[in-house]
Amino acid sequence: MDSPDQQALTELRAWQQRMQKSPSLLNRFTRRVQLRLNALLPERVHEAITTAIRQMVRGVLFGSMHTTRQPLLEAPWAKRETAVRTRIRYYRNTASAEGAVTGAGGFLLGLADFPLLLSLKLKLLFDVAALYGHDVRDYTERLYLLHIFQLAFSSQHTRNDVYRRIADWGAYRHTLPTDVSEFDWRTFQQEYRDYIDLAKLAQLVPVIGAAVGAVANYRLIEQLGETAMNCYRLRQLVPAGTILPPSAS
Questions:
Q1: Which InterPro entries does this entry report, sorted A to Z (predicted)?
Q2: What number of other Cβ atoms are within 10 A of residue 107's Cβ?
């Protein structure tokens, strides 16, 4: 690999600090409220949502595995980064347009945005993995994608835990379950749902739905793309197991 791009390394260091920040007072309050709201939902509702998200994610994970591009094995670092940014821009614009259309289409089309956006997010992760030279036919690489997803769309409390696993992936991957069904899908769906609820609910509101959908989807894809880039930078530019001290803020 070429000498690491200094801008990429600088961005990575700043991102590492953000991933390890202690939850703020607002973060802790929001998490308590979300936990209480989740506790009010009947168990069968949690089970239904968990099952739905698990099936959607697994369908995309194992379906995209057969359509994703081959890993880019030989390429200068700058070329990889440029290609990744291009793919993020493509998915970001696609998701923004899709959010505008479904947001303008009323309640039923607004609901349809959820699985469509989820599919775009996961396909983006497949492309980013391939462009950084990783083969998603490897089961542990597909679980790595789920960890990236969880890191991007979780509360700061959960983000701290997931970051530690990502930062020491070389060792952690050997502790992974052999069956993807054993993944903690309940936490995955709750964190994702809680994270995007406000934006996606606003998308269902008449008149403003189209604008909200376009902006929300744009930002969610942008955030996922940034997280994915830095997760793969972390694997390739930083010695395994290196975890920065948590930020004092």
A1: EcsC (IPR024787)
A2: 12
